Amino acid sequence: MDGAPITIAPSILSADFARLGEQVVEAQLAGADSLHVDVMDGRYVPPITFGPIAVAAIRPLVAIPIDVHLMVVEPERFLKDFVEAGANIVTVHLEATTHLHRTLDAIRELGAKAGVALNPTTPLSAIEEALPFLDLVNLLTVDPGYGGQRFIPACLRKIARLRAMIDESGFSILLEVDGGVNAETARAVVAAGASVLVAGSAIFNAKASVQENLQRLRAAAVR
Ligand code: DX5
Ligand code: ZN
After folding, report:
1. Nearest-CA neighbor of 75 among 59, 57, 93, 88?
2. For residue 196, how far is its CA from the centre of ligand 1 (angstroms)?
3. Cβ of 144 less than 6 Å from ligand 1
4. Residue 28: CB partners within 8 Å, gap ≥ 6?
5. Whose CA is nearest to atom 4 of ligand 1?
6. Which contiguous run of DSSP H or E holds residue 175?
7. Residue extents of the structural domains in the chain
8. Segment 139-165, tens digit of pLDDT
9. How far apart are the CA of 167 and the centre of ligand 2, in A?
10. pLDDT (tens digit, 9 = 90+) per residue, 92-132?
11. Atom of ligand 1 nearest to the CA of 36
12. Residues 129, 119: Cα–Cα separation, whole Å
């Protein structure tokens, strides 16, 4: 287990798009460590969401890092656009890019941190040789494409195995968990070894304010 603090990345997928600017400012004020932007192309996953112009629009409103999760086919086509728009971390799906090393290398060359995302049933062995080229691994704990889905409990073991793999490697790689993270599931996710918690519906919902929701999640996300 690394000693890095647990960080929380609200996913704006569940934000009120009519008030997106206000909502990202609210998230930063509430103590969000970064913002998670779910980019969907209608091909890798069915919905279509944001492009680089949305990232460019929110960039001047917040100082925290913007973590762009590309759920698009051939993400290498868009790396430059997203980094120029202000992305600090760019994460591509392993299943969506043919030459992972080239893609990760290109992200770092552009000056951003390079991440890879794995779907729930994609084996960890697929990224064993990629560890030297990674700054972040995003483990999807739901099938990508939608906010508000249920956390898949079988993924807890995978988080723990990835934690061991990262620690043994000696590389400094963030372990991000994405999907179904809320005040009920966060403790187990953190105990398994996550360092970054992505949360969309748990942060942006009508039940309470962004601040209350974030505080509640942070209180649950203790080692
Ligand atoms: C799913 C996305 C997630 C999503 C998580 O495709 O990658 O980032 O916003 O939403 P919640 O936290 O509601 O499960
Ligand atoms: Zn995501």
Report:
1. 93
2. 13
3. yes
4. 35, 62, 63, 64
5. 147
6. strand 174-178
7. 7-220
8. 999 999 999 999 999 999 999 999 999
9. 23
10. 999 999 999 999 999 999 999 999 999 999 999 999 999 99
11. 8
12. 18
Catalytic residue list contains 38: yes
Task: Give residue-wise pLDDT tens across range 44-55.
Answer: 999 999 999 999
- For the domain 7-220, what is the CATH superfamily, name and number? Aldolase class I (3.20.20.70)
To the nearest whole number, what is the mean pLDDT of the chain?
97
Mean pLDDT of 127-138: 98
Q: What is the DSSP string of 43-73?
A: SSSS-B---HHHHHHHGGG--S-EEEEEESS
Report the candidate in 140, 218, 138, 198 with the shortest Cα–Cα distance to residue 173.
138
Of 56, 19, 54, 70, which Cα lies nearest the Cα of 210? 19
Angle in degrees, CA 163, 166, 172, rounded to 5: 120
What's the rounded Cα separation, in Å, for the pair 198 and 99?
A: 26
Place of tokens 């999907």: 179
pLDDT of 3 reads 66
Adjacency order of strands within the sheet including 136-140: 7-10, 196-199, 174-178, 136-140, 113-118, 89-93, 66-71, 35-40
Q: What b-and-e string marks burial along 142-163, b requiring 16 or more CB atoms within 10 Å of the CB? A: bebbbbeeebbeebbebbebbb
> Ligand 1 pocket, 201 CB below 6 A?
yes
Active site residue 178: yes
Burial class (CB in 10 A: 0-12, 13-18, 19+), 211: middle
> Tokens representing 191?
């105990």
